[in-house]
C-alpha cells in the first residue's frame, strides 16, 4: 500500500514546563506524585503543538495521493419523500467520472447505526431528512464530481414532513417516519419503542413510585413552581469539516484515513456494509479539526470505501460547510415541562419533568440521550418524590445525536431555571436554595443510585459565590464601549445597561452508562534507543484537540520514570479505545495506558530479579522506576534501564474497564446506571442593554471538581471551551429548522461565539479524588457545558426580569417583544 | 472542463510559482492547498465566515477562500508556512511560539488562520489593549474556545499589557 | 462554480468596452460577495472582468468640503481615512461594524454598494425565490423570515438589504458615479437601490454595462455629530437585525438638521424621510425622537418572525438620537 502524504508523526520530546493557569486548592493529597519531568500533574507542551502552529499537522482534509479521485454526495432536497426511481446514466457517461453508486451498489448490509442500525448507507424506499445521501460519485476533479451529481435523476414522491416532535411522541395518528415492515432490527425491549418513539424512559421515586398522582404529591408542598421550556437545536460546529481518504488494498480490503471520534465503532459499522471481515477494513486516525460529538456517528466513511473499492483508486471526500450541517448529527432540541414543590423553608419536596427530545430521522444515540436525560433530568438535588418521563422520537427533522453534555444539557437549563424561580418565590438567594438541597457523597439520585464518590456541591457553590466580582462599570468618566453590550456598535455610554448575576450547576455522567461494556486498550513498549530508555504508547484513541496525546505521554513518564515517550498514531492495529466522548478518555485510555505501563513495570522488575540484582522474593512494592533507572527504596539505584534491557524490549497490552453499570428499570427507572459523576458550578455576570436586548457576558467564572488534575493548562482549556459552547447555546446558537429543513446551514447565519463574546474566566479547580478512577481523576470536558448556559440565562433574567424560558435568548426576548 | 485556463505566477512565501493551467475559478486557497501543496492554510467554511483561510497579501490579512487566485498575481502572499523567515518547526515565528506556550488552541484547525490574522493585526497596530485585540480578532472563529489564550498569545507578541481593566486568566509567563 | 472567461482590465476603457461587448459579464473587485454567489451558483457570469488594477482607489477631498471615494477603495482603508473619520464618523463606524478585519481589507466601496441580500431562501437553490429566479415565488413569506425586511417589502420579496456602509451613505446623501461606453452619470444613493415591487431581481439602477467608479459625499455640517448603531445577535461579525445611521445638529434646543437611515429592516438602505420630516425644527427631546421613529415605522409590515424589528427599530432610532444629543463627538 502506498502511504498517503503528509502523515503526522506525533513525537514527544523533553517537554518544557508551562505555567499553571489553574488555581488548585488541594483538598486531598494527590495519588502518586510524578517525579519525572513532564509527568502527571505538570503542563508539558502538546506533542503535536508545534506542528499545529506551523501548518504541518495533517488534518483529514490535507491527505493527498497522486492518483486519487474525489468523491461527492447527492443529497435529498426533500425532508420526506418516497424514491420512485434513480437514473444515473447521465452521470455515468460524463468524462472524468469513474463511478456513480446508489443503494443497489452497497455490497453488504444496507444500513448502519451507532447503537441501532436504521440508517441507510444510501437511501432506498424513502428519504427521511433533507440532505440524506442518495447517490455518490467518484471523479478525477471535485468540480466534475459535483457536475455529475446534477445529472443523477431521482424521481421523488414528496410526502408530508413529520416536523413536530411533540406530535410524534403523543399522537397515535401521526404518520410514521419508519413504517412498519421496514425490516429494522428489533429494538431493545426496555426502550418502550412504539410508533415514532425511539425510547421512552420513566423514573419514579417516593410517592410517585407508589402510584401517587401529581395532585396528591403537590399537596405536600408549600410552594410550587412550574415551567415550560424549549431548547433550540445546537450544532457542534467544529471548524474542520468531515473528510476522509479511502485507499483500496491488495488484499481486497481498504485502508481508511479518517477524522473520527472512535475508530473501532466506525470499523464495526463499515465492514458489514462493505461485506468485508473487520480485519480487511483498517482505519487510521487523520488529524481531527474538532469533534464535540459530531464525529461519533459516521458521515462519509462507507461512501469513500465503496468508491475506492469500486474504482480501485484512492478516493477522498471532503464536505463543504453547508454539507457538514447536513452531514452530521446535532444536539437534540427539546421541549420540557417541569414542576417543583418545596417547603416554606426551602426544602425540595417533589419534582416532575416531561422531556421530549427530537431525534430526527434516524436513531443515532437518541436512546442513550434519553437514558441520560431521564436519569439526570432533575439534577444534583435531593428530592424525596420524583417523576420523570423522557421521550426520544423520530421525526423528519435533521438527525440528532451526540454533542458535548449529551442529554444532560437540555434538562440542566430547565432544573436550574426552576430552582431560580423557586428561590424567588421563597425569597432565598439562589445559591442558598441550592445548598439546602444539594447532593453530596452518599446521596441518591432520582434513579436510586448512591453517589459513592466525593460530590462537594455545597462547597463548590459557596466558592463560586465568594469569588471576586468583576469591577463595577464606571459610573462616570470615559467608557470603553467595547466593554458594553453591543461592543463598538454601542450608542449608549451605559445608560439603560443593567448588570445581572446568575448561577448554574449541573450533574453529568462521565464514561458510558447503562450496562455498556466500556473499555480501552493500550500497548506500551519500553526499549533502549540510542543508549537511552524510550517508551512507545499505542492506542486507538482519537485525539480531537482535548490533548489526550499529551496525557498519554504524561502517564507513561510517571509510571515508567522515562522522559522520552513517543505516542504512536492511533489506528485499528491495536484494540478499541472506545469513543473520545463522554469525557471518558483520560479515565479510560489513561487507565489503559497506566495499566499497560504497570504491566511493563512488573516485567522489568522480573528482569531485575532474574538478573540477581535483588533476591527472588524481593517484592515489586520495594522497587521503583525513576530517571531511567530501577531503584530500590533501601539500596538506591540498582541498574539503568539501558543496561538492564540492552537490545530487548518489553511490551505489554492491556484492556481497562470501569466498573460495571446497570440498565435503568424500564418502569421505575431505578438502577445504578452511571459509573462516575462530574460537576461544574458557574457564576455568570452580564451587562444587558435592556432597551435594545443586547447582552455582554462580563464574567463567566467556574468551580469544578476534577478529582485529580493531570495537566493544569489543558484542563483550563477544557473548562473554557466547554463554557464557551454553553454561552453559545444561551445567547446565539440555533439551527433554524422550518418545515424540517435547516434554514441557516452556514457560519453567517448559524452564529457561534467569537473572541469578543467569551469573557476571561476565573477558574477554581478542586481535587477530591474518586476512589474508583485512575489517579482519582474525573472527566472534565463536559460539565462546564451544562452549567454555563443556565448561569448566563439566570444573569440575564436578573438584569431584565424577563422569564426567558427558551434558549437561545434573543434580543426580542429580552426587550419583551413576543415571538411565536 | 474549464472554458479557458490562464497562465499565472503566484508569489508565495518569497518564491515564485508558475501555474500554467490555472482554471480562473480557482481560489487562492485551493491554489495554495492543491496546486502548491501548502495545506497549512485551512478551509473552514469556504464562504468567508470563519477566518481559517487567512493569509497575508502584501502584508494585509485577507481570506484566501474569497480570493480568486488570478486576481492575486503579482501580490506577495504569505502563508503559515512562510511566516517564520527560516520556516518550519525548527525556528518558529514568535507568534507561533506564543500560541504553543499559551496553549492557544486545541484541535488546531483554526490556528494557522488565527496566527496569520494576528500577524496582520499587529501590523495594523490595533493591539493596544486586550479589548482591541478581541475586537479585531473577531473574524477568526475558534470552536474549541481557546480565546482567552489566543488573546494572551497575541498580547505577548504585541507587548500589550493584559492588565489593567482586563481579567485575563491568571497565567504566569514562562 | 460555473466556468467563465477571465479578463484582467488594465484600464477603465478596456473594462467598459469588454462589458458592453459581453451581455453576461460581471466586474470583480474585492470578491467578498460575488465569489461567494458564484460558488453557490446564484451568480453565473460567462465573463469575469477583474477590475482590481483600475486606478479607482483614491480618497480625495472635493472643493466645497465633500469627499470623493474611488470605487476600489477598500473598506478598511475608507474607515480609517482621516477625512472620513473627521467629517463622516457615521460612515467610518458603519464600515467597522460590518464583517471582519480580513473582509474589510478585501471589500471595495463599489462592491459593497452592490452587496446582495442574506435572505436564507436566496441562498437555498432548492427553494423558490423571486430575486434569484423571477416568477418562482417567495418562500420567505411562509417560511423562516426573521432576518427579512419590514419596510419596502412587496408580495414578491421580503429580502433585507444587508449593507452597513450603504445605510450611512444613504443618510449622507451620497451620490454614485457610474460610467459606461455611453458616458458618465451620477445617481443619488437613495435612488441607486430599488424597491423590490414586482421585480425583486432588479436591485439597482445600474445598467448591465455600467461600472461604479466613485462615490461622492457632499459636505454636511451635521455629519460631524453622527453615529452608526447596529443591533445584532452577536457583538461582531454578524448582519444587522436593525441598524441606524444618524446625524444630528441641534440649535437652541431645536433640531436644525437630522439625517436618518435604517439598515436590516428595509429592502433597500432605508432613508427615513418621514422621521426627518417630523424632526425638522422639532424640539430635540426624546419624545420627539420617539414620534419621528413611530412616523417612519408606521408603514412597516411585520410577520411572525420579524415583527419585533419594528419596535426594535423604534428603540434604536431613539437611542441613537438621544446619544447624539449628549455626544462629545468622540468616536471609538
UniProtKB/TrEMBL annotation, chain A:
Q: Name the Pfam families on file.
A: Ald_Xan_dh_C, MoCoBD_1, MoCoBD_2
Spans annotated as Disordered: 1-52
The molecular function terms of the Gene Ontology recorded here are: iron ion binding; oxidoreductase activity
Q: Which Gene3D superfamilies is this protein grouped with? A: Aldehyde oxidase/xanthine dehydrogenase, a/b hammerhead, Aldehyde oxidase/xanthine dehydrogenase, molybdopterin binding domain
Q: Aldehyde oxidase/xanthine dehydrogenase a/b hammerhead domain: from which residue to which, for each copy?
A: 54-160
The record's annotation in InterPro entries points to:
Ald_Oxase/Xan_DH_a/b, Ald_Oxase/Xan_DH_a/b_sf, Ald_Oxase/xanthine_DH-like, AldOxase/xan_DH_MoCoBD1, AldOxase/xan_DH_MoCoBD2, AldOxase/xan_DH_Mopterin-bd_sf, Xanthine_dehydrogenase_dsu
Question: What is the protein's given name?
Answer: Xanthine dehydrogenase subunit D
UniProtKB/TrEMBL annotation, chain B:
- Organism, scientific name: Marinitenerispora sediminis
Query: rRNA processing: is it a keyword of this entry?
Result: no
A Pfam family this protein belongs to? Fer2
Q: What is its pathway?
A: Alkaloid degradation; nicotine degradation
Keyword vocabulary terms for this entry: 2Fe-2S, Iron, Iron-sulfur, Metal-binding, Oxidoreductase
Domain 2Fe-2S ferredoxin-type span(s) in chain numbering:
6-83
CDD domains reported in the protein's UniProt record:
fer2
The name this protein carries in UniProt is (2Fe-2S)-binding protein
Q: Which domain of life is it from?
A: Bacteria
> Which InterPro entries is this protein grouped with?
2Fe-2S-bd, 2Fe-2S-bd_dom_sf, 2Fe-2S_ferredoxin-like_sf, 2Fe-2S_ferredoxin-type, 2Fe2S_fd_BS, Aldehyde_Oxdr_Iron-Sulfur, Beta-grasp_dom_sf
* Keyword DNA repair appears in the UniProt entry: no
Instruction: Identify a single GO molecular function assigned to this protein.
Output: oxidoreductase activity, acting on the aldehyde or oxo group of donors
Automatic annotation (TrEMBL), chain C:
Give the protein name, as stated in the record.
Molybdopterin dehydrogenase
Listed GO MF terms: FAD binding; oxidoreductase activity
Q: Which InterPro entries match?
A: CO_DH_flav_C, CO_DH_flav_C_dom_sf, Diverse_Substr_Oxidored, FAD-bd_PCMH, FAD-bd_PCMH-like_sf, FAD-bd_PCMH_sub1, FAD-bd_PCMH_sub2, Mopterin_DH_FAD-bd
Q: Which Gene3D superfamilies match?
A: 3.30.465.10, CO dehydrogenase flavoprotein, C-terminal domain, Uridine Diphospho-n-acetylenolpyruvylglucosamine Reductase, domain 2
FAD-binding PCMH-type domain location is: 1-222
The protein's matches in SMART domains, at most eight in alphabetical order, are given as: CO_deh_flav_C (SM01092)
Carries keyword Oxidoreductase?
yes
